[in-house]
Every structure is written in C-alpha cells, then in structure tokens.
Amino acid sequence: MTTTLFRPTGAAEGTPGDSHPDELLGQLSPRELEVLSLMAEGRSNRAIGQQLAVGLKTVETHVGRVFAKLGLDEDRYENRRVLAVLAFVRRGSTAAVTR
Q1: Average of per-residue pLDDT across 66-76
Q2: What is the pLDDT of residue 22?
Q3: Quick one: which of 82, 55, 56 has its CA closest to 70?
C-alpha cells in the first residue's frame, strides 16, 4: 500500500500539493508547530490542551489549521494526523542531515 503525503488539490485552493513539504511546514505558526510536535509525541488533543493550558476547542482549531496548511483534506482512506506527523518527522530528519 502506498500513501502520498502531499497530493495535488484543486487549483481554486491554491494548489498546496505543488509545494515542497518544508515550504508547507514553514507556513505553520509557532503555536501550530508546537501542537504538531506534541502530536508527534503521540499526545491526544486533550493532552495537548492540558500541556499548553488551552481548551480542547482551541487545540482542535490548531489541529484543523495544521491539516489545512499542509493540504490534508478529509479522506476515509488516510489518517491526516499520521500524515501531518510524518511531514514533521521527515523535516526533522532532513534538517539533521543538512546541518
């Protein structure tokens, strides 16, 4: 089974699939990156909210924005949370190699 991490989307949406994963991650705010890093640690939305001292709805908003900025639309065959974390982890391993 093959999963495409960043697939093209419609032109009306600004074609985020045409961007390199690092560029897409670069669009995230510092708080969104913080939420994504906690997701990469395997934390639930509730645990992220407790860690950051924010409400569950706030975490859900940040997670939704992460998905949107990475061009990860809802798909019953893919897990957006896993795909977002993979993008984050791959960027970290690439950064470590280039330093």
Answers
A1: 92
A2: 72
A3: 82
Give tens-digit pLDDT for 24-67.
888 999 999 999 999 999 999 999 999 999 999 999 999 999 99
Half-sphere exposure of 28 (CA within 13 A, CB side): 25
The top-level CATH class assigned to 19-98 is alpha beta
**Boundaries of every domain in the chain:** 19-98
Closest to 78 in 3D by CA, of 6, 30, 27: 6
Mean pLDDT score across all residues of the chain:
80
Helix, strand, coil share of the chain (percent; to 5): 65, 0, 35
Are 62 and 35 contacting, i.e. CB atoms less than 8 angstroms apart?
yes
For residue 36, give the nearest of 63, 69, 76 by alpha carbon. Answer: 63
CA-CA-CA-CA torsion for 42, 21, 69, 29, nearest 10 degrees?
Answer: 70
